[in-house]
Amino acid sequence: MARKAAGTLLMVRPLTGRTHQIRVHLAHLGHPLFGDDLYGGARMLLARPALHAWRLAFPHPRTGTLLRVEAPLPADFRAFLARLGIPLPPHRRGGL
Length: 96
Known about the structure:
alpha+beta
């Protein structure tokens, strides 16, 4: 977690696969995601919800083997964090 006056970078782990779970809960707490028009987030510095799933893990539908997929942080999200003065989390600095 990194906190600045303009916002806070959170790492969250959803408990279910319910659509919009993170967005709804944060908005309910009075902290909607930046760029989230649907749940009241300001479209400031980012033209989409400030949400990125950097790692997913799920069982393969046929074999049951656990699949893990990691995705790089998109350039717009990196730029967004830089403009807010929020450093990348340690696990994201080395490339992914």
